[in-house]
Amino acid sequence: xxxxxxxxxxxxxxxxxxxxxxxxxxxxxxxxxxxxxxxxxxxxxxxxxxxxxxxxxxxxxxxxxxxxxxxxxxxxxxxxxxxxxxxxxxxxxxxxxxxxxxxxxxxxxxxxxxxxxxxxxxxxxxxxxxxxxxxxxxxxxxxxxxxxxxxxxxxxxxxxxxxxxxxxxxxxxxxxxxxxxxxxxxxxxxxxxxxxxxxxxxxxxxxxxxxxxxxxxxxxxxxxxxxxxxxxxxxxxxxxxxxxxxxxxxxxxxxxxxxxxxxxxxxxxxxxxxxxxxxxxxxxxxxxxxxxxxxxxxxxxxxxxxxxxxxxxxxxxxxxxxxxxxxxxxxxxxxxxxxxxxxxxxxxxxxxxxxxxxxxxxxxxxxxxxxx
Length: 372
Ligand SMILES: Cc1ncc(COP(=O)(O)O)c(C=O)c1O
Description:
binds pyridoxal-5'-phosphate, EC 2.6.1.-, 372 residues, 13 helices, single chain
């Protein structure tokens, strides 16, 4: 099976540990274990009391009942039975695509977005059409283009809501139009939902609250600031959950007793995590928008309080070379836009720690002055 290299991951694998000011990531500044333990106000005492009694066996294969119950609360009408725990959202996307896509299937994927969503279907032999997003439309895809792309044999439409790298949220009305079109041919709609608008989570609608053939994938890596625990999930109807179970047994057994417990603990303290992150995102958004206003060589469609952004940089140089020089000379890490096939842009993760963001932007501006 052939597959393209994963552009963003390959970039980060080489460069991220060399950064002093990492403003490339899409996670809202990760919590330390101490911050996680502080969430319950008792330094994680009940968490450890429970953990110490656990046997380090395989634990709950699909995720503990407690985990599934917490995740099910994120949706209007999904039974805990239909939540399957996975190794991050990466594992969730892989599971859904591996279970559904066969050679010759027609798949439509939002482009650019998370590369799994188009390159895994291609690697499985699907005929993949890109549904492009357009900067002039606030990074929205055009529903008229979907009408042109959809075919009687379209099996799956893949979206990333909110989008990585742009931070754009597809609103409920738009998703409803996608669902209406998908229904005409019986297509599934898979939506990777790892990013939530932190200013007002009610702006977000999960695909599984709109469509019985919707598949939501998600994890604790972005909105919840704990990518290190490697826990994600799929949420679907029961027929799809059964199908996924079959494939899941071949690709993973479980996420581990410790990870499941920690994931459940974080979800139980969800309100506190979201409040921490809401403050961080809104504070950093202000710093970021002030910087954009003052920087003549940068412009951006502002992300909707989602932790990733895709500014355009006016740089008369190959963008990847620019980013490598920026890192080597100023210690600042970005993701060059060519990794998303959009070389005029960079991914800028403004939800880093505030001091890293401030210093990173200052140094980026200093570096940009060389072209004036
Ligand atoms: C849209 C999207 N999906 C999934 C992932 C991976 O998430 P996880 O760490 O949960 O595997 C990322 C990470 O960048 C992402 O941006």
